[in-house]
Every structure is written in structure tokens, then in C-alpha cells.
Amino acid sequence: MGDFYVTTPIYYVNDLPHIGHVYTTLVADTVARYRRLAGDDVYFLTGTDEHGQNIERAARERGVAPIELADRVVGRYHELWAEHGVSHDDFIRTTEPRHRAGVEEMVRRIEAAGDFYVAAHEGWYCPACETFYTEKELDADRRCPVHERPTEWKSEENVFFRLSRYQGPLLALYARRPEIVRPETRLNEVRAFVEGGLKDLSVSRAGLEWGIPFPGRPGQTVYVWLDALTNYVSALGFGAGGDGGGGEAAAGDGELYRRLWAAEDATRVHLIGKDILRFHAVYWPAFLLSAGLPLPTTVWAHGWWLRDRKKVSKSSRNLVDPEPLARRFGTDAVRYFLLRDMVFGQDASFSDEAFVDRYNADLANGLGNTVSRLVTLSRKAFDGTTPPVPCDDNPVMAAAAECAAEYREAMDAYAFQRAIAALSRLLDAANQYLVEREPWKRIQEEGGSAAVSRVLWNCLEAVRIVAVGLLPAMPKTAPRVLAAIGAGAPPATLDALAWGGLANGAPLPEPEPIFPRIAKDEYLADAAAPANAAEAAGAAAGTATAEAETGTQTAGDAGASEESEDGMIDIDQFFQTELKVATVTAAERVPKSSKLLRLEVDLGGEPRQLVAGIAKEYEPESLVGRQVVVVANLQPATLMGVESQGMVLAASVDGAPVLLHPEKPVPAGTRVR
Ligand code: MSP
User: Fold this and answer.
1) Does residue 618 sit in helix, strand or coil?
2) Of 24, 76, 146, best ligand 1 pocket probe by most atoms within 8 Å of the beta carbon
3) Annotated active-site positions, please?
4) What is the DSSP string of 105-132?
5) Which residues touch 562 (CB under 8 Å, ≥6 apart)?
6) Ligand 1 atom 6 nearest Cα
7) Under 8 Å CB-to-CB from 234, ≥6 apart: which residues?
8) Residue 174: CB within 6 Å of ligand 1?
């Protein structure tokens, strides 16, 4: 066992985190927790990427200084990671002096290697990526391949990095150490890209104020990616000596750098999304080679969470906010779903239905029910304790040995889905054995016999092993499962996966539901209710509720509209949304839903049926005869089996809808503009 350094990307602070951001960090946390249990000395880093044009612009739009915006968003990240039990050892911000010292040292070293020169820089530039693209990387309309938005022609004098020099060394590196990029398909992509030829890379920006001044090049600011990538070493104390003479680090932080980065035998893993692969697998190793520094062991690129077949992102207006999911299901359920439903490395689709189904099947009915059933039976048969007689030769024991081996192999290979599936199979084997042995019948006949004890102990022992395996993924609830089955405090090592750990005759507390079942129809109706969904999107995007509400229910199609780079729409785009006054003619509750009302409205001689998520705030009778404002040209959506042919507008106050209506009565169907 040895030193293990794991990092997440550092997140931009122009937006609040969505499920795509949360995913990498939760994976990194799972890896960190697993490696600690495996006996490694783990160091886990996350942080924020705070410089650059995008952040500067986002701050200007909000009328605040960039650092104020950054502080606000960083605060949210800290809260979020605390909520999810993320066990990082450090959180780096690129605006910190220690980071600046690291970047300055990196620049000095690359400069000393003779890999910088100044030249005019021209090309197609995507401000969202903060990167230049070649003509052949763009489509016919010269749109950015990542953001699918128009790029702009840009020309300025910049510092260039001699990336072209590193084509050979990089190809040799991929051949010598193929594990440097995982999965293999991504290595192949990267290799093909490098084989296609490397152009020198512009690594400074002229006249950009919000960034680190380029040492020795007045008027130039360090390019955000050279700045950002350096976080992986600046956080360890690289450059902390501040002597500019070779990165001799100061005693405290420098020790980390020496142990985790400079040491040959430390494992260094960068977890990233596939969209930032080139930066990590081409530019970063090239910068390090130039600076004469060691390389990461592995850059592991995962796929994207998709919704409506598009990458979850603010610009696609298909955000998945982790917050309401965590509130309703618990943070561990979010972690479980993200690890179980994505093959690490490939894309996966998010839907509320898949989420609630996975939760109910695996956690409420699967693990949760098994625990309460076994604990109830054991308490009954053995006077409130775990069974008194252990058992060391039975089919569950064989299944457990297989499970533990497969689990470890899968976790070591970052195949989280397979690791969790192995645990589920053990749980299934225990349940099948339980059904075959029918201890509930035998308890009636034999009471707490040795045979009953063996059966129940075997099954509880299987649950214990499952819970141990779940500790890295579910740091809050796996310990609760262990406590519930009388297994005591969570173990410190993976040795606990071995058969035979559950004590005999240990006290068993009265079972409490750990994963309460969620009523699927009601949940889906609530999740789809406009007031709710808009609140989620508004919160995640940091936009005003009214803006989010017009965009939410339409998801994919609204996303197709031409939103400008800064999130503004023009007047024609606004008029694409037909807002009209409608008079409510009938209203009733939607059966089985606590949130939804079915409204019939008159839209100027045109009757419409609408479903609105306002049942908690409005009695149906009180609405008849009132006027409301509706989006009249919204594609119909079906909520709890009732078609909604439009959307009622409401202001959202702490999540509670307050209906909008005209200041005095107007003819039904009057356009709102
Ligand atoms: N600041 C850079 C990273 C610098 S690392 C030295 C950045 N930040 S980001 O906030 O835009 O994205 C951070 C991570 O979130 C990326 O790894 C990206 O792939 C990931 N995701 C963003 N949307 C995603 C999905 N829809 N699905 C999965 N992950 C995606 O890039």
C-alpha cells in the first residue's frame, strides 16, 4: 500500500454546481474512501477555477466583483460537499496566493526550458471554452464542438508554448505508459489527436485583467488552462519556496509535494469529464515534461450525464439539480444512483423515473427491506440479539467470497457499477436462501433453534459484507446498516469483507426505516410540476425564477433556441413565447397528487386544460372565475396521466407558487407582452 493522490477538476465559479459537477467529486470521494479502506495513504484534492474571461463576464452581469462571485459560489461548493460527506483533504482556489506562486514557478521553469515565444495569435475562439479551434474542428457554421455556439475570430499578440516539440515525447509516453489515459478508447482518441500534429499553444491573453499576470511579460495574463492545470501541484506546495530557483518548497506544504508528486512510487490520479481530456492528457503532460516535473499516473475520463439525449448543462437548459434529489432521497441515494447507473467512462442518461425506480428497487425494497426483515426475525427468535450460532459452510458464504473478490477487482478498475452489482448479487443470494429456508415458519415450530440461528446469521453476515462494500459509496447510510444489524462501528479496513465478522448474541436495536419507500407516481408528478422544476432549474442556473419557468417544462425544445453567449435573448426570441391571459372556468385536484390541480381555462373562445403544481397553496374552488397568465404555445406534457396544454405562470417564493394575474379584468386571450 502506498501514497495515493486523487483529484477532481477544479470547477468554474460562474455557475452553481449541477449533477455533472457533483458526479466527478462523488466518484473521487468514493475512490478516496475505498483506497483508505484498502490501506493507502490518501490525499484528496478538489477546488475551484476562478480566473478568466467567463468569470469576469458573469460577475459583471451580476454587478459584483469577480472575487465576490467566486466567494459566493465557493461557499455553495463547501456546503454541498459537506452535505454529501465529501472527505477531501484540501480545497484549492486559483485566486489563492499559494496557487499563484505555483503558476509563477511553472512559468519560470517552462521559460527556462526555452519553450515560450511571443507571436501574433489569430483564430476561431470559443469564449465559453476559452480556447482557439482550428477550422477543421468546427462545423460549417463554425460552431464550437463542445458548446455548439458560434466561435469568434480573434487576433492578438500572445505568448506561445512550443507544444509542437512534444509530439514525439507524448507519443512515446502513451506507448510506454498506456495507463496514463483511461479508458483505453480515450487513449486512442488522444493518440490520434497527437499523431495528427500539434500546433504551438497560446498560453497568455492580452488585456485580460482577471487572472495571474504572466511573469516577465507585461500586459499578458496566464491562459486559464495553464493556470488551472497547475492547481494539481500548487495545492501540494509546488513553488511555495518562492525563490524562483527550481521550486524548492517550504518545509510544511513542500513535504506534500515531495511525497505525492515528486516521489516515483506515489499514485496520482486525475478524474475528469471527457470534454476536458485534451487539456489533461496532452497539454498538462507537455507542460510537465517541459518543466521537468513528474507526470500523473492516470488521467481517468468519464462520460457525460445526459438528459433528453443532450449533455446536462446550463446552455442545454436540461439541468439536473442534485439539491431536491438529496432532500427527498438523501445524499447517499444520489451517490448510489450516480455510481450504479453510469458505466464509468461511458455516457449515461438521467431521468427522474430511473432515479426513483433504482432507489425503490435497490435501496427501499432490496437492502432496506432485507435489513428490517432479518432484524425483526432475529430479535424475535433470539431475545433482541443477533443469532447465537455462526455458520461457516453454506451457499451464502460461497456467494460472499465470490462477491468480495469481484467487488475488489471492480473497485480497483474504477468499475463502480460492476462493484455495486456484485454486492447486489450477494444480497439476492441471501434473500433466495432465506426464502428457501423459511426461518419464519421454523421459528414458530422450533423457536430460536440452532438451525434458525444459522440461517439468520448467514443472511445477516451477507448484509454486513454488502454494507462494508457500500461504505465508500454511501458513507452515511452504510454505517447505519451496520449498526442496525448489530455489527457495530464501521471497520477501518477491507479485511472486513471476509466471512465471519458478525458477532453472536450482540444487541439488535429495533429496526428503523433507513430507505423509506417513495411513492413513484406522486414523486414523478411533483418532480414534473412546473413550480417545482422551475425552482430547481432557477436555483441551479442562478437565474431569476420567471426566466427559468418559461424554459423548464419545454426542456429540450427551449434549449434549441438561440441563447446568446451571455444568456441574453433578443426581443424576437422573447416573442416566441406566447403569454396570454386566461379565465379559469373549472378546477379540481388531480387524484393521488398532493401538488397538482387540473384547471379548465378560457383562452378567448379556446378552451384549454392545464395542470399546475399549486394544490398546496390554492383551493380549486377559489380559482374559478379568476384570471391567470399562461404560456399558450408550450408543447403539451402529461402529468400524472393528465395532459397539460400550457403552463400557468407563478412567482416562486421559497419554492411556493404565487399566481400572476392582470391588475384589472381583461378579455380572455389577451396577449401579455
Ligand atoms: N474549470 C475546468 C476544469 C479545470 S481542471 C484543471 C472545467 N470546469 S467545469 O466546471 O466546467 O467542469 C468541471 C467538470 O464537470 C468537467 O470534468 C466536466 O466534464 C464535468 N461535467 C460538466 N457537465 C457534465 C455532465 N453533464 N456530465 C458529467 N460531467 C460533466 O471544465
Assistant:
1) coil
2) 24
3) 18, 21, 126, 129, 144, 147, 311, 314
4) HHHHHHHHTT-EEEEEEEEEEETTTTEE
5) 569, 573
6) 229
7) 92, 98, 99, 100, 101, 102, 103
8) no
Nearest CA to ligand 1 atom 18: 273
Task: Please identify, by atom number, the ligand 1 atom nearest to the C-alpha of residue 17.
Answer: 10
Concatenated DSSP letters of 284-317: HHHHHHHHT----SEEEEE--EEETTEE--TTTT
Nearest protein Cα to ligand 1, atom 26? 312
CA dist 296 and 276 (Å) reads 15
- Please name the amino acid found at residue 48: T
**Ligand 1 atom with least separation from CA of 275:** 19
Distance, in Å, from the CA atom of 264 to the CA atom of 525, rounded to the nearest integer, reads: 55
Amino acid at residue number 570: D
What does DSSP say about strands 298-302 and 181-182: parallel, antiparallel, or unpaired? parallel
Amino acid letter at 527? A
Q: What is the pLDDT of residue 147?
A: 79
CA distance 215 to 230: 15
Handedness of CA 349, 23, 36, 236 (dihedral sign): positive
pLDDT at position 636 is 76
Q: What is the mean pLDDT of each successive set of 10 residues along the chain, which is 673 residues long?
A: 95 92 97 98 98 92 94 96 97 98 97 97 83 84 86 91 98 98 98 97 92 96 97 96 47 78 96 97 98 97 92 82 93 98 95 96 97 97 94 92 98 98 98 96 94 96 98 98 98 97 96 94 80 38 27 26 43 74 92 88 90 91 92 81 88 83 88 89
For ligand 1, say whether the CB of 287 is within 6 Å of any of its atoms: no
pLDDT for res 318: 83
What is residue 267's predicted lDDT score, i.e. its pLDDT? 98
Strand 310-311 with 348-349, pairing = unpaired
- Smallest Cα–Cα separation from 18: which of 307, 433, 288, 376? 307
Alpha-carbon distances, residue 111 vs 44, 191, 220, 630, 634 (angstroms):
30, 26, 15, 61, 57
Task: Region of 85 please: left (phi>0), alpha (psi -120 to 50) or beta.
Answer: left
Measured at the alpha carbon of residue 276, what is the angle toward residues 271 and 281, in degrees to the nearest 5? 75
Q: Is 47 in the pocket of ligand 1 (CB under 6 A)?
A: no
Residue 657 CA, ligand 1 centroid: distance in Å:
32
Q: pTM of the full predicted structure? A: 0.79
Mapped onto helix, strand or coil, the DSSP state of residue 156 is strand
Q: Give me ligand 1 centre to Cα 55, in Å.
A: 15
User: How far from the centroid of its chain's Cα atoms is residue 503's Cα?
Assistant: 38
Cβ contacts of residue 221 below 8 Å, gap of 6+? 51, 204, 205, 206, 207, 208, 209, 210, 211, 212, 213, 214
Cα of 186 vs centre of ligand 1, distance in Å, is 16
Q: Quick check: CB of 232 below 6 Å from ligand 1?
A: no
